[in-house]
Amino acid sequence: MAPKKATYCNNTPVVLKVGGRDPPKRLGDNEGGSPVCVCVCAGMRSVVLVFFLSAMAAVVQGSCPHVCSCSAGVVDCSNRALTTATLPSSFPASTTELLLNENHLTALPTGLLDALPALRRVALHGNSWACDCAILYLRGWMLKRGSDPSMRNVSCSSPAHLRGRLIVYLPEQELLDSCRYWLCNLALASQISLLVFIGVQALLLASVIFFLRRFERLTEEAQRTAAESFTAEENADHNSEYVMLKDRSM
């Protein structure tokens, strides 16, 4: 009886008998039958590869922030009472439309929008934008997308002399001047705080000196009173002895 031919799976011979016929030497070398070779190792490798690629794609694209809702490239973070501190630090790389309107944002972190290459539209209106040093990044990004009409309804809320001005049209020098004012105010506040601190320390030192001197006076008065009492007692004793001697002599 002739030996059975082997079917090779990953270069490993597997002897199969399908439909009463001997299998072909290798997969795909069909000699009239329908042999089936299940390669478990290759199948597992394919599953692991697909899973790995899916995981890498998810990491690259990022996940939807929990405070927002995402659908078909649209990330909706509007009306979430977000501030600059609570704003998500990143968004999915596949984001095409980002809605940040109707929040309490005063500025955007530097580089936040640069990480979204597919971004086509951003809604920024309805926020409390503070037009100081921190707004320079947003202004620069808006200038690059000057053709976007949605950029024309984003205005300053503070400081007072810039309130209502469109951010995209603000001169850079004017923003830098406001930065200098802010730094001057900070320096002035620091100096005032330092003076107040020094004043409080001086008052505490004066209070300590006052109570120490008062304690010294009280101590001196107590010592003087004790000395006077002791002297009076000695005089009284001498007087008593003198009276007794005088009575005896009479």
TrEMBL record:
One of its GO terms (biological process) is cell adhesion. It comes from Danio rerio (Zebrafish). Its main location: membrane. This is Platelet glycoprotein Ib beta chain isoform X1. One of its GO terms (cellular component) is membrane. The lineage of its organism: Eukaryota, Metazoa, Chordata, Craniata, Vertebrata. Gene3D superfamilies: Ribonuclease Inhibitor (3.80.10.10). The chain crosses the membrane at residues 192-212. Keywords: Blood coagulation, Cell adhesion, Disulfide bond, Hemostasis, Leucine-rich repeat, Membrane, Signal, Transmembrane, Transmembrane helix. Residues 63-97 form the LRRNT domain. It is found in: Membrane. InterPro entries: Cys-rich_flank_reg_C, GPIb-IX-V_Complex, LRR_dom_sf, LRRNT.
